Amino acid sequence: MMSDHSNPDEKQIFEPLDPEPRLLMGPGPVDVYPQVLKAMSNSMLGQFDPQFTEYMNQVMALYRQVYCTENRWTFLVNGTARAGIEACLTSLISPGDRVLVPVFGRFGHLLTEIARRSGGEVICIETEWGSVFTPDQLADAIRQHQPKLVALVHGDTSTTMAQPLDEIGPICREAGLLTYVDATATLGGMQLDTDAWCLDAISAGLQKCMSGPPGTSPVTLSNRAAEQVQARKHVEAGIRSADADDADGVVIQSNYLDLAMLMDYWSPLRLNHHTESTAMLYGARECARVVLQEGLEAGFRRHRLTSRALRAGLTAMGLELFGDPVHRMDNVTGVHVPQAINEEGAVRAALLGDFGIEIGTSFGPLQGKIWRIGTMGYVCRKANVLRCLSAMESVLRRHGFGLSLIHISEPTRLGMISYAVFCLK
């Protein structure tokens, strides 16, 4: 008999974990590189073991290459991608600082929420979901509002749109303000030139194009950003040295996400701030190593090609792609739910239950109106796209979506169109 968990004295051991395999083609998380899973199973080390601190140094060196930066302060913040976002914003924003947040999807609203909780005077500018901002729009907003920090998302998976950054960073640098970027959905899958684009602080996660598990957040800080963080440095009493001096700035409100103390932890000082997540550091190291071994440009090309093939197949199916085609992300595709589909959730449930494929819907004004299909990291492969298209065709037919006769004459046609994109490259 199944337990209803109403008896607190009942002892349950359960069976060993054995999850059914899935093909994760939503907006993240995605399937993990096998090499990463293997690396994470290595032996535990103490956090100040010379082997482990050398691995920490290697992680810093690897992510400098992934971020295309010379920034000294490039390291991990333990926690999901949101921990990296909050560490950057809460450490950079002092109470009363004016912060400009351009919102073009759900995650711009997240930056607004965190900036406000950090005490910032937040000014939002918004554009329609499915579009992004022009450099002129942002330059005008900067001149009008005179912020101390601009915080924006690079690729917002809720809308599948990517905000160009190459002109925005220099605009902010020239105006003398800092730029923070949430690159959770783009790191490793789209071009992100930290130094060339004059970006001061960036955070990301592993669970998207880096194809690792969620649980740690790579961040990088320019010297300008690091100076602002160090101006608020305060070391907790239990671990501070006798000659330690606090900075004059306002104490960073979070202890755990205090970048000033984390910088000491990742420096030769090895401040005993917290116990580094050993398995996640192993995983983050291997994620970066795998991405760099392929080559950043080769990885970007793979993501562009795979998304182009997926979109060719979806279009051939008679489905309409979502959003501004010029600014679509290279690793997530939005597609309108056809009017003939009464319950979009039933389509996703059938894909998962019958074919083992997970895709997503969206949030806010797009919830239930679009599907989001990810082609990121280890998932970003020809076989997975063809499998996804074949499964979607079967499920849509079963749910009453009549595929256009000009697009389909036999079930293999869709796969052939997508396959041709791979062959042409």
Give an account of the 3D structure:
About 40% of the residues lie in helices and about 15% in strands. It has 13 helices and 13 strands. Helix 3 (about 80-90) packs across helix 4 (about 105-115) and helix 12 packs antiparallel against helix 13 (about 415-425). The protein has about 425 residues and is an alpha/beta fold. The strands form 4 sheets. Strands 2-10-9-8-5-3-4 form a 7-stranded mixed beta sheet, sandwiched between helices. The protein has a two-stranded parallel ribbon with strand order 1-12. A two-stranded antiparallel sheet has the order 6-7. The model is unreliable at about 405-410 (pLDDT under 50). It is globular, with a radius of gyration of 23 Å.
Outline the secondary-structure elements.
Blueprint: E1 23-24, H1 34-40, H2 50-67, E2 73-78, H3 81-92, E3 98-103, H4 106-117, E4 121-126, H5 135-145, E5 149-153, E6 155-156, E7 161-162, H6 168-175, E8 178-182, E9 201-203, E10 216-221, H7 223-230, H8 259-265, H9 278-294, H10 296-316, E11 332-336, H11 344-355, E12 357-358, E13 370-374, H12 382-398, H13 413-424
Helix pairs in contact: 1-9, 2-9, 3-4, 5-6, 9-10, 10-12, 10-13, 11-12, 12-13
Number of helical stretches of at least 4 residues: 13
Beta strands, count: 13
**Series of H and E elements:** EHHEHEHEHEEEHEEEHHHHEHEEHH
Q: For the largest beta sheet, what order do the strands appear in spatially?
A: 2-10-9-8-5-3-4
Q: Which stretches are low in confidence, meaning pLDDT under 50 for 5 or more residues running?
A: 405-409
Mean pLDDT: 93
Radius of gyration: 23 Å
Distance between the termini: 56 Å
User: Biggest sheet, open or closed, and with what strands and sense?
Assistant: 7 strands, mixed
Shape: globular
Class from helix and strand fractions? alpha/beta
Strand content: 5-15%
Helical fraction: 25-40%
